[in-house]
Amino acid sequence: MGTEVDWDKHVRRSRATTLVSASGVLIGLGALTYGMVSLSRVEEARGRLRIEAKQAQTDLAEANSELNKAVDQLAEVERVSAKKVESLALLRVEVAELERAKQTLAEEVGVSERQLEVARRESRAVISEYRKSGVVPAWTAITPRASATALEGQGAADDGRPLYRISMWVEMPSELRPKIDSITYVMNHPSFATPRLQGDPDDDFRVQYIGWGCLPTVIVECRSEDGSVVELDFDQCAAFSESLPNKGGLPVKAPPGPDSGESNRNALPSLRSHLGGANDVTPPVEPRPPSE
Predict the structure, then answer these.
(1) For residue 2, is it within any domain?
(2) From CA 18, how far away is CA 16, in angstroms rounded?
(3) Could you say which of 136, 159, 183 is where a domain stops?
(4) How far apart are CA 292 and CA 289, in angstroms?
């Protein structure tokens, strides 16, 4: 007897199988599509990462370059600092040497001032002895004089101080005049371009110049016809205070001291050598010449 085929059941199974297969294909296609999209996204991410990595490398290179520059600048600063420290040490040594030199000059000035005071006392003692004996040496009759006339409205010194026409001359007995060969005024101050001023023998050995101040010590060198020289200590400031009573005299030009780089001993009179005393006082030496 034959087997009866249930075609309806068979058709239903075939349809189910086909549906499952189609579902599998659709799932496969969906998975494939998702995979391709994911792969594309991964590739895009890798591309961005490559760009970011390249930018990071560029930034790192720039940072290294800046760092190298900073290191070079730091090294340069250290070199400059080392030089400055070395220069500062040298300056300190120079300052110490200058301080020692200043102290030495101050001591020399002190010695010179004491020598000058001793010379003055000895000269006064000798003059006193001469007077007591009734014999007065000829040079004691020579009297230096000075006067100053204000040059109002005719300019001023560089610092604004007023200028004066200054005159110096000597007075002496007429019988002594033929015995005097020359008179020289030694101006102990660096403002004089020519510190040794020669007097005019036809006008009481007068000298004239334009200046702004006075000197407390002018050395007046009196050279006689026999060649001997006597030096007189003349206070120019005192003479000016007499000739300008209403102005109180002229500003005092202090003799060069240790701060000016010159020593007072260059302008001390050698008066004691002419009075028979010890010749231990340096005679006048022309100082360096700025202009008066």
Answers:
(1) no
(2) 5
(3) 136
(4) 9
115 close to 268: Cβ distance less than 8 angstroms = yes
Q: Are 212 and 161 in contact (CB under 8 A)?
A: yes
Q: Which domain holds residue 211?
A: 141-274
Question: So what's the pLDDT on residue 289?
Answer: 34
Say how far apart CA 185 and CA 167 lie, in whole Å: 11
Indicate the length of the chain as a whole number. 292
Task: Name residue 145's beta-bridge partners.
Answer: 169
φ/ψ of 145, rounded to 5, equals -130, 160
In tens, the pLDDT along 64-109 reads: 898 899 999 989 998 898 988 988 898 899 999 999 999 998 888 8
CA-CA-CA-CA torsion for 102, 106, 109, 114, nearest 10 degrees? -170
Spatial distance between the Cα atoms of 125 and 100, rounded to a whole number of angstroms: 37
Q: State which amino acid sits at residue 252.
A: V
At 180-230, the pLDDT tens digits run 899 999 988 888 888 899 999 999 999 999 888 888 889 999 998 888 888
H-helix or E-strand containing 144? strand 143-150
The span from the CA of 240 to the CA of 234, in Å, is: 12
Range of weakest confidence among 18-27, 123-132, 145-154, 252-261: 252-261
